[in-house]
Q: What sequence folds into this?
């Protein structure tokens, strides 16, 4: 597995990190912070900035131990030795009560408790009632977009934001990055002529917020291009961009904001793409078909096609056709995927689109043209999300050559039943991976800049009525856990403490059973959540354990199993080189 | 079978895509998203040959363009090789007729082809009830019709929502194009009889955009 010299110890003492944060204010102190007593702690409670949601919680401690016991584990680490693992598992459960005597539960549950309060606006429409908001305005202070809030509110806020930014530019001749106050944080991104501001009480790092702002800015560029944007504002500094943006732009911004804030969408956080899990042979066949079809189009002038992509539903990359030595930037692909699955999902099967898109990280001044067509195994197939073929050219009149290439490719994939394979491709399940006590994980392969995670599963079969709401709540909860786990590894500015780090994060609560209603036959579960983050130069792993798990050795063992499982199935989980021409 | 290229032009949200969907799928979606870029679709119709009553199939290749101002610079590429153009306005929006007229002017100036069939189409007549108090009509039928006659355009008022007259637009465009083509073919045949060569290739289709030797522009 990993070389023994890899260190999983933070490079900084804990006090330094604590001082980066605002101190825990007395009013919001529902927690007992016992983390300070542990020398290897890398984050403390005030960094989570959350209040516990369940009223009886008296104390939540958030401990984060860097694992020094790595060497011990290496000795008895045997990925295939389930007996040893089971034994150690049972030991951990048996020894549970001894180790933490205040806890009364003995079970490990697959239900993940909510420990992060979601401060939904309670009846008032004050801007401050939202725990997350994005504002986009022009450098002259004209509002362009806000995630929440009425025009009136945003306009006055825009003035204040503008003043603050100008003040720092004049005084320090550099831009302000972040204002922190208690658990609230404002982050600023100046991309003149556009200013973007994020507000959050969700405990993200400044760096994370600024990445989110950069993504929103990238969307604007993808729609308008930097050149056009500059042209507007060169002509008139107080240009009102809102008049030029279309309804679709605001819809897309809404969609992106909700993806970032409400869904399990770690793409921006990790800067990686999700990939469709597909047998290696099928993927190779698809790539071969792509190359063959390209060869057949012998009259296609060189340079007509820049890239070809097959994208599966839920923004999953499936296959890539690309010139040697060129790849598309992850952000550009995120934007393209968002657009495809938000704007084009209702397209007719036989419809073909020709869409100019500016890929900001490829060339922020020019447009590329995308031929977009949904792939079906039968022409009349209707409902449900469909995989889509995207062929990208720099020439605006290349539609017909790309259409011919696309038609041939789809026909070839249909006849070899590969489109069928795409429809039947299944996401991995947590049960596919031999990782005991792990509820969910995200594994990112740095080499591929892609990540994989098991599909979400529900402990109880949700009824159709509330399915979407339940799924959304669950996604949001899981995503918040991952944000917190990820944060344990990075400084506020996004830098990591060391090249390789392993860190445990724990959320526990005491005495939560005291106020459970008498009539209830069901005991409310105690909260004892553990998460793990592990980064090395080759991969990043984030995992959430089942509630009640508390043996770090078992968790680390599971983590190692996940890593070796993902490495073993690398070619199934990730798109490697793609089809190169 | 004849194949003709047809382009839809007009201000944003006048219902271009809805007209196409009514024609191609015979369906209507109240909450259609704005078109981004342009969509390419095809649909066939049948026209009767006048002399022997036989039916001929006509295939329309349709460019449904986005009405948004930002895509305006791309429009020439869609109408450049078109045989027919549907210029759509919204009968409840006076501005959209002005926009339609500017499209007509652009087509007449830039395409420079007398055979281009232009059809002025007023959409959303389902919102107009001449007797009702909340009649939303803002463009009178006669106003539009006299403009169309003046410019020698086909003219229809339609509703993509109810389907009223939608099929008729394409039918009459098809017939008109077919008529022109039949004359061309007849002329070609006459020439063929006169010449010693038995085989003359008749170019039924206009050069497509992918042809680098296209001489239209």
A:
């Amino acid at each position: 597995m990993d070389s023994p010299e890899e260190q999983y110890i933070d490079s900084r003492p804990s006090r330094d990190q604590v001082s980066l944060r605002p101190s825990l204010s007395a009013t919001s102190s529902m927690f007992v912070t016992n983390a300070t007593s542990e020398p290897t702690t890398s984050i403390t409670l005030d960094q989570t900035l959350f209040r516990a949601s369940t009223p009886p919680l008296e104390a939540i401690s958030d401990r984060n131990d860097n694992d020094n016991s790595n060497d011990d584990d290496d000795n008895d680490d045997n990925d295939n030795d389930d007996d040893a693992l089971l034994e150690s598992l049972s030991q951990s459960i048996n020894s549970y009560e001894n180790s933490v005597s205040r806890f009364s539960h003995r079970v490990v549950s697959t239900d993940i408790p909510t420990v992060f309060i979601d401060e939904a606006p309670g009846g008032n429409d004050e801007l401050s009632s939202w725990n997350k908001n994005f504002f986009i305005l022009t450098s002259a202070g004209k509002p362009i977009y806000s995630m929440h809030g009425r025009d009136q509110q945003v306009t006055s806020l825009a003035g204040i934001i503008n003043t603050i930014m100008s003040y720092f530019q004049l005084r320090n001749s550099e831009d302000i990055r972040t204002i922190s106050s208690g658990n609230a944080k404002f982050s600023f991104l100046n991309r003149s002529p556009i200013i973007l501001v994020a507000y959050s009480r969700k405990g993200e790092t400044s760096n994370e917020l600024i990445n989110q702002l950069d993504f929103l800015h990238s969307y604007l560029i993808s729609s308008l291009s930097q050149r056009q944007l500059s042209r507007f504002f060169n002509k008139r500094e107080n240009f009102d961009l809102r008049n030029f943006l279309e309804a679709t732009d605001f819809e897309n911004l809404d969609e992106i904001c909700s993806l970032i804030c409400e869904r399990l969408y770690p793409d921006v956080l990790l800067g990686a793409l999700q990939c469709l899990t597909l047998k290696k042979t099928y993927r190779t066949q698809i790539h071969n078909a792509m190359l063959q079809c390209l060869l057949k189009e012998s009259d296609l002038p060189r340079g007509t096609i820049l890239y070809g992509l097959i994208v599966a539903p839920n923004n999953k990359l499936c296959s890539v056709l690309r010139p040697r030595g060129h790849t598309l930037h992850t952000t550009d692909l995120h934007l393209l995927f968002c657009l495809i699955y938000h704007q084009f999902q209702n397209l007719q099967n036989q419809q073909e689109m020709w869409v100019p898109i500016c890929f900001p990280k490829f060339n922020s001044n020019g447009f590329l043209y995308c031929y977009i067509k949904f792939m079906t195994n039968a022409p009349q197939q209707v409902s449900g999300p469909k995989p889509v073929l995207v062929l990208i050219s720099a020439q605006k009149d290349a539609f017909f050559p790309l259409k011919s290439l696309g038609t041939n490719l789809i026909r070839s994939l249909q006849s070899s039943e590969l489109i069928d394979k795409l429809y039947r491709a299944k996401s991995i399940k947590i049960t596919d991976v031999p990782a005991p006590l792990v509820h969910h994980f995200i594994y990112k392969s740095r080499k591929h800049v892609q990540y994989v995670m098991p599909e979400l599963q529900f402990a109880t079969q949700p009824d159709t009525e509330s399915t979407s709401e339940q799924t959304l709540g669950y996604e949001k909860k899981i995503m918040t856990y991952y944000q917190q786990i990820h944060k344990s590894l990075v400084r506020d500015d996004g830098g990591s403490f060391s090249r390789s780090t392993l860190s445990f994060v724990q959320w526990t609560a005491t005495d939560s059973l005291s106020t459970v209603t008498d009539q209830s036959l069901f005991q409310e579960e105690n909260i004892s959540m553990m998460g793990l983050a592990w980064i090395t130069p080759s991969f990043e792993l984030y995992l959430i354990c089942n509630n009640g798990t508390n043996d770090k050795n078992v968790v680390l063992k599971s983590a190692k199993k996940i890593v070796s499982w993902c490495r073993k199935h690398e070619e199934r989980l990730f798109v490697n080189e793609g089809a190169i021409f | 079978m004849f194949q003709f290229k047809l382009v839809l032009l007009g201000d944003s949200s006048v219902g271009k895509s809805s007209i196409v969907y009514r024609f191609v799928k015979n369906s209507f979606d109240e909450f259609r998203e704005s078109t981004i870029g342009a969509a390419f679709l095809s649909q066939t119709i049948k026209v009767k040959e006048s002399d022997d009553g036989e039916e001929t199939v006509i295939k329309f290749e349709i460019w449904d363009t986005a009405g948004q101002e930002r895509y305006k610079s791309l429009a020439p590429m869609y109408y450049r090789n078109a045989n027919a153009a549907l210029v759509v306005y919204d009968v409840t929006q006076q501005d959209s007729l002005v926009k339609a007229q500017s499209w007509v002017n652009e087509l007449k100036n830039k395409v420079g082809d007398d055979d281009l069939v232009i059809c002025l189409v007023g959409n959303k007549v389902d919102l107009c009830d001449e007797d009702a108090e909340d009649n939303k009509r803002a463009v009178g039928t006669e106003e539009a019709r006299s403009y169309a006659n003046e410019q020698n355009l086909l003219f229809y008022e339609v509703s993509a929502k109810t389907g009223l007259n939608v099929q008729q637009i394409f039918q009459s465009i098809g017939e008109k194009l077919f008529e022109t083509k039949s004359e061309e073919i007849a002329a070609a045949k006459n020439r063929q009889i006169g010449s010693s060569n038995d085989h003359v290739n008749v170019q039924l289709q206009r050069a497509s955009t992918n042809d680098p030797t296209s001489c239209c522009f």
Notes: The mean pLDDT of chain A is 78.
